[in-house]
């Protein structure tokens, strides 16, 4: 279970995104290589999804991957 303390993370954090035709996945890792958050969303193919829907899906998926203690 992830705790909500900023001090537990080794900076910098990196978010990787896998956007495909059926889903978007994101993982947030710290400098030690630990996965500190994950996010999942709907379709992410820029050729088949409306731009507004794609942007919203990416925003929500990345936000879900970033630990709550680090969200602005």
Description:
By secondary structure, the protein is an alpha+beta fold. The protein has one domain (6-70): ATPase, nucleotide binding domain (Nucleotidyltransferase, domain 5). Helix content is 21%, strand content 26%. The chain is built from 1 helix and 3 strands, in the order E-E-E-H. The chain has one helix spanning 51-65, and strands spanning 14-19, 24-29, 35-41. A 3-stranded antiparallel beta sheet has the order 1-2-3. Strand 1 and strand 2 (24-29) form a beta hairpin. It starts with 13 loop residues before the first strand and ends in a 7-residue tail after the last helix.
What is the general shape?
A: elongated
Q: List the domain count as a whole number.
A: 1
Mean pLDDT: 90
What is the gyration radius calculated from CA atoms? 13 Å
Q: By CATH's scheme, which homologous superfamily applies?
A: ATPase, nucleotide binding domain
SS content category:
alpha+beta
Distance between the termini: 21 Å
Low-confidence sequence ranges: none
Strand content: 25-35%
What's the multimeric state? single chain
The largest pleated sheet is described as: 3 strands, antiparallel
Briefly note the CATH topology name.
Nucleotidyltransferase, domain 5
